Input
Amino acid sequence: MENHTGEDSKEAEDLIKKDDRIKGAATLFHDDHLIVGIRVKTFDRFNKRKIAKEVEKKLKEMYPDLSVLVSADSKVLTETTKLILQDDEKGMKKKIHELISLTEEET
Output
């Protein structure tokens, strides 16, 4: 979990950890965005979009001031992890918008 905002990220972390259908997640708070890539457990993979929507709804309630994006797509999880690991603050905003457009294409 990477936090570049003044928001308290503890609630989001707790929400994701408590959901026993999720086995891994990468969470990025940046400016007015909250991006979460999740990996669901094997038996829940057929419901991964539904799980992502449920988590997104809960996070939107917790962080109404942020643009929340939750995806169970493995590409989003990988790219979010890469963003967390990189130190390029200027390039991060561009990559975040690319990620958002990528998820809009998938739906």
